[in-house]
Amino acid sequence: MTTFESITANLRNPFARDDAGEKKFGTIDGVFLPTVLTILGAVMYLRTGWVVGNAGLLGGALIILLSNVITLSTGLSIASVATNIRVGAGGAFSIIAQSLGLEVSGSVTVPFYLAQAISVAFYIFAFSEGWLRIFPNHPAWAVVFGAFVIIFAIAYFSVSLAARVRYPILIIIVASLISVFLGSFHIEGAQGVTQTPQMWGSFPDGNFWSVFAVFFPAVTGVLAGVNMSGTLKNPRRSIPRGVISAIIVTMVVYLGLAYWVSLVATPAELVSNFTIMVDRSVWGPAVLAGILAATFSAALNSLVGAPRVLRAIAEHDILPGGEFLAKRSASGEPRNAMWVTGGVALVTLAFGLTGGGLNAIAPLMTMFFLITYAVLNGVVVLEQSLGLISFRPHFKIPRIVPIIGVAGSVITMFLINPLFSLVAVVVITGLYIYLTHRQLKNPFSDVRSGLFVTLAEWAAMRVITMPTSQERAWRPSLLVPAQSELELLGCYRFLKALTYPRGSVHLVGIYPPGKKSRMASIEDFVQSFANDGVFARAALVEGSDFGKALQAGLDVLSGAFFHPTALFLPVNRGTKTKTVQSAIDRAVEDGMGAILYAQHPSVLLGREQTINVWVREQSPTWQIGMRLSNLDLSLLLAYQLVQQWQGEMRLITVISDEDERLKAEAFLAMLIDLGRMPRNTQTIVSVGRLNDFLPHAPQADLNIFGVQQNVSVKFVHQMVESTKASCIFVKDSGNESALA
After folding, report:
1. CA distance 153 to 155
2. What is the pLDDT of residues 199-213, one digit of tens each?
3. Is the pTM of this model over 0.85?
4. Are the C-beta atoms of 727 and 716 separated by less than 8 Å?
5. Both 348 and 477 in a single domain?
6. Which of 122, 419, 588, 663 lies 20 to 30 Å from 39, alpha-carbon distance?
7. Is 93:244 a contact under the CB 8 Å cutoff?
8. Domain count within the chain
9. Beta 702-706 vs 726-731: how paired, if at all?
10. What is the CATH number of the domain that holds 480?
């Protein structure tokens, strides 16, 4: 091994350990052969003639080409992604998870796993059709379950054993195809060309899309090799080469067979005789052997690959009982996942025996595979559209390729069976919602953050070109400075009430030089806010002077596009008036409002039900414009708290002249109406001096006052004592409007 190879072999991959202990395979035996042997299986021998009999030569060729356009687009997309990331165990699961996250990957690949498990039964039914042609007196159920037991035993004991079986199977299939194509010549043992091909069929057994649904499982083997990604020596090289070459080779074979069957049999014979290839070949036994070998191999490949997909899903705690399903034997075999997969296959076999066999199962498989193909192509569309530097695959493809894959998969789904397609989408959406609430731990980064950043940048550029006034877009985005964990704990519930669900919290931890450890737990608060549905982020600022450090934080954050809309500053008896005054002045200068929070030492926030908003006397005009006199932020915060506390608010004003009462009452009523405040908001107008009225004012859990021009910390605490409640003192920035 070269130095480069030794280094890259040891690079940490979250999926790399999944299949440790298993033998590693190359391109031919790990990808190309499983893919080819799965595609050249049941449908090739038993349904190609039926497809051409229904659709005619051109219709059959169109079905084959359309199917291969979807799978080739998917194969090219897989090849592109595989040369950009380190594909680990689980194949499609690994690719989607590393691009769109575990939630999307789990919601898509769980149905895909079921399709893989169902396909085991599909290929066993195909095997039984070939067997019963040789031994028509054997009970169908005995053939089906007997084949299952043998296939399960081989897959259960070793993937290496299953790989060794592929080579003799390939020889048998090649020999059978030679026998088939020789059947179109006038040689001994062959019937020769018997008719002119029918170009377009009459679809006696359905319509174009129902015939397509039966044929499409033929090409779903494109993921057979990808599913073995955890057992590959070099997935980045083997997956693109193996998948694309397998698709091209098998497409040529299918088109050749479609032409051949149109020459050697009538449409009626093709529709009624599923084993027409046996009858028209040079040597029928070779074709029968090919049918048995191909279907046996396809079932084996599915039964080897599906448990590995299941185990990869389970290891990331996506499924209940994940620890059990993720276990491996000493040799690296996913035995527990194998038992579950075998159970799914058995249930499907029982359904097939009572519900129509091969044709009944095929549409179910088709739908699940198409969903997976759509998402795999969607991954590449997304990666290419974002233009992130992290997406730089060695194998580049035009954007139209994955777009064709997505559109072809989705459109085909709904053309085949709209109802079942809708149900499938609902199921995947439900799984996604469930997994999102599980808050899975992603062991790797994905492109979702890049997606949202790109959208945010686009939105930011759009906003820059719009008028600067943003009153309608205002939301409580609070800058919260703190010198200790206790400060944040004391106002945590209040901050949540002020910002949930659309606001945000910007924590700024300020620590003395060399004392960074004091604020080590600030990230815990970020996570706590996130768990409570509030977006939060944190930054640390070193400074020996709290006031200067706070001003630096204000200046820096005010330059951010998503900057805070208000400074939230807890005030205690040790807080200096000079620090508070300079912080408010700097906040307003930087385009932010200010909120001083003075908490009552005993009452705290009481029952969190009632709020008093104190309105400064507006004499003599008592007029309401789009800008209120330092009242907009007070009303917006009060409304926010009323919604969160499910409480009630009062608007209170104290006037000096009784003659102003009617104007004051009308002013408050208009505030409620124009500001769309809750209808149960009360208004109180008192005549006299504020200090005389405070002891008699209705008790509230929180009082909201406007900030005076010259702040006094002593006055703040006097108001707390007078009202016997916690208080906030608010300064508008000029960017808020309670009437907007």
Report:
1. 6
2. 888 888 888 988 988
3. no
4. yes
5. no
6. 419
7. no
8. 2
9. parallel
10. 3.40.50.12370
